[in-house]
Amino acid sequence: MSSIVLQQSASHAGHGVEPPVPRAARLGVDERGDSGKLNEKDVGDEAAVADTDAQDIQACLEGDDEAYARIVKRYERDIARQMHRFDRAPAACEELVQEVFVQAYFSLDRFRGDAPFLHWLRRIATRVGYHHWTRQSREARQVPLETWDGAAEPDGSIDPAAAGALLHELFARLPPKERLVLTLLHIEECGTEEIAERMGWTRAMVKMRAYRARKKIRDIAEREKLLEKIGWTS
User: What is the pLDDT of residue 74?
Assistant: First the structure.
């Protein structure tokens, strides 16, 4: 995409436990190093984490009130980083994080353990974020892009933070499915196969939507005379 870098259950109801409210959005979100990998400093290697997850999931299914709190604590920051891609407003991000963990809580009996638990959580988070964008698109809320002047520095270089914020607003002009595919491809750096798995699409559908989305983004940027501001030269 030229020179611009597009890099962001009923079985439980019986024991009456409310899923814990995640704290990560209130503590702040650091997007650096969010590659979807486990934080070795906090949770150890993958095998150990998988064993711990399996124990906590089973305990939760058996009615352990504290087991799910441990799961939330283990993964809330990873999910908060992901949901920050969908909404940068702290309160909205926190609500999305909570929704992810609530949905996961009531779906634990459907986790099969054939992939890391975090991958399963991320699929839920992707769907939650997509539905959030779908709700937002009905409001047709847009930021006037012509007011963006801060991406280009006096020396002609591009301010990454300003360009990233502008790109976020450009993405918001896309329909939810196309916005999602570009976000997953270029910000979360997911492959087409992973996106297809998360969303229940075919890889061909992912590629088609990505192609259409890139063309729309360029058309919008060109129409708004924003190509130079975001460093998109060809």
Answer: 96
Q: Name, in order, each residue with C-beta under 8 angstroms of 196's C-beta and a sequence gap of 6 or more.
A: 202, 203, 205, 206
pLDDT in tens, 150-187: 545 555 555 677 767 777 788 888 999 999 999 999 88
Q: How far apart (Å, rounded) are the C-alpha atoms in residues 91 and 95?
A: 6
What pLDDT score does 5 carry?
Answer: 28
* Pair 137, 94 in one domain: yes
- CATH number of the domain where residue 64 is located: 1.10.1740.10
**Residue 12 domain-assigned (yes or no):** no
Give the rounded percent of residues in the chain with a pLDDT score beyond 90: 47
Residue 134 contacts by C-beta under 8 Å, 6 or more apart in sequence? Answer: 176
- Domain housing 130: 18-29+41-141
Q: Is residue 23 classed as helix, strand or coil in its secondary structure?
A: coil
Cα distances (Å, whole numbers) of residue 84 to 2, 4, 8, 109, 140:
25, 21, 8, 27, 20
- 180 and 105 assigned to the same domain: no
- On whether both 136 and 149 belong to a single domain, the answer is no
Q: Hey, what are 10's tokens?
A: 């009923």
Of 141, 158, 177, the last residue of a domain is: 141
Nearest to 174 by CA among 186, 162, 160: 186
> How much of the chain is helix, strand and coil, in % rounded to 5?
60, 0, 35
| Residue 19 per-residue DSSP state | P
